[in-house]
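As described in the Methods, two query proteins were run sequentially through the folding procedure within a single session, without resetting any intermediate state between them. The first query and its resulting structure tokens are shown here.
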Amino acid sequence: VLYPVFLDSRTLLYLATTDDGSGPWLYTLHVQSLNSRRISFGVEQYASLSASADGARLVATVEHSKASLWRVPIKDDIAKETDAERVDIPTVGAFSPRLGQDYLLYVSAANDGHAIWKFANGTVTELWSAPQTRVVGGPAVSPDGKLLAFTAEDDGGTRVYVLDIARRHVRALSESLEVRGAPAWSRDGRSIIVAVNESGEPRLFNVPLDSGAPTPLVNGYSVNPMRSPDGEIIVYADADAGPEFALKAVTASGADYKLPDIRLPRGTRRVSWIPSR
């Protein structure tokens, strides 16, 4: 929580990050009821906040991310800065890259929301965008390369969407599930693995594409799954422990899978598998 500012004796504004490490965003808190809610849902990130003594004026510093994509070779030792090569993308900003069969997917800012783009043979195609809506984490490509799953957040909540890449048709997987973090595909491509809020805690569930009942995969805090190339292992983020979180894993059937002790800073919940490793 950063820069708490009183507008009056009942209303407090402040900046805070979300559980997935994004932000900071703008929140309001009713002092008497202690009810808080997020009131900014664009793609801009707030860096500071202040108010005049009478609460009539606010001053905020806002950041607009312009990240770019880079290609770095995998070596036996640490790659040098000169080894990195920028990927020439004809859009302003690009992040959360994902590889398809013969194309690259990425996310960029579009107006006051996010857009998902397909980059192939030097040409970009916008697959999806929505105002005042951001893509959480990054998109996930189905095993057959035909569908795309992604989590999007707006002022109505956070939902998982499935997009037919060829037809550019998109649908919400479920209107009732309160999801958290980015999704992943199951090994057979017939369900989505995503964190669903259960009793106030996110846990990984298998959510069928055919509107069947979700089934639990991990019994405990788990978010942002990433399936291995062979579909046998699913790596996910455990709960934050101070400024860090632990990386954990289960098998496709939900059995615990032992990983080395890997701890990452909050906000770096972006894990990818190296092909065939």
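Immediately afterward, the second query was submitted; its sequence and tokens are:
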Amino acid sequence: MSVKTYSVDEIIAYARKNSEYYQRLYKDIPENAPLTSLPLIDQSDFWANCDKHGYCVATRPQTDGQIFKSGGTTGDPKYSLYTAEEWQTMCECSGALLAKGGLKNGAKIANMFYAGGMYASFLYTYSMLYHAPAKTIMYNLSGNIAIEEMAQTILDHQINCIASVPSILTRLISYIKEQGMSGFAVDTVYFAGETLYPDQRAKVCEVFGREIDFRSVFYASNDGGPIGYFTKDCGFNEHRTMDDLTYMELIDPDTGEVITEMNKPGIVYITSLFKTLIPLIRYPAGDMAEYTEPAGVPDRKFRILGRSDVAARAGYVTLYPKDIGNVLKQCGIDYYSYQIIADRNSDDSKDFFIFKIAVPDTTNCDTEKFMEILYRERPLIQDALNDKTLHMPIVEWCKPADLEYNARTGKLKVIIDRRK
């Protein structure tokens, strides 16, 4: 393989010498200080110094390779620069690891990640499959085409593997169920970009009429590249670290200390061992995770616990997506997905929540029971209503197509803030 990686010390030394941003960041730190002595990257400060050309973070002008843009769901888009060598390294290494997740010769794979718009997932999936030892048949549909075309192509060509973000997959199975379509050969689903929850997996199995093998394509980010890979022994939301490509640390959010023990949640920070144009050293990936194997295991297994910074806040009440998922589970409501919206009343400037929940049957949902369990599980909402700092939440039962998705990436906007 024509790959090029570096040690942690080499990356640090190169960044200190060639990047104005890292020179400033490390100016009071001794030359040979270990990684754990270096400051954690503040993402807002990092991107204030890194524009579409790399600005102060870049170690040199870009002369080849790829430029990608983030989905822009949480603010201004961020531009991620890769040299041709970095892109080649990332895709070849990722492709080589797909076999450990069960990829086999002859698999017919529909690539339904979003293409174009300077987004990375479609090209990354295509490229890693191209470099994988197992030779597959690729159907490059993209997530941009109409759902009915996706469904018909998968059926007509008897495609057995789908690669997609969960929100596109959810819309696909909703359409197939509504149309009463059958005869599909799908037995494997590769997903990335979002968690595919157990209840969603159960619906996929129901619609396709068989047990489906669910596999994460990769745990990766637009800016940092691959962080963790899937193997056949990984459980729900589990991946393995990629010790030779991306060095991962879990940091205690309260103490700032590195976590080494099992089953203790921490924020994921990465140090890329292949990116030198835009070095990433102790950079926050934006997720919480915990180790599920002891220290010292090669490519140690870990479990992703969700975003470290994604929650909806109205008044003084904070809600996480898992809070609503827990309520729906207790209600026994059959649903596809949901989103939490924070809004503000224009008359008195008081906040309120809107819960949009996509369900198979909008006429058979018990709003009263949902609210009763929500108040019981999150009594702070009732407190805020009683002291009149929050307006009554609104529950909207809808179809998957009625939810809001990112126009470029197709990802579900789980958290929406409509306040200006």
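The radius of gyration is 22 Å. We note this only descriptively and draw no conclusion about the first query from it.
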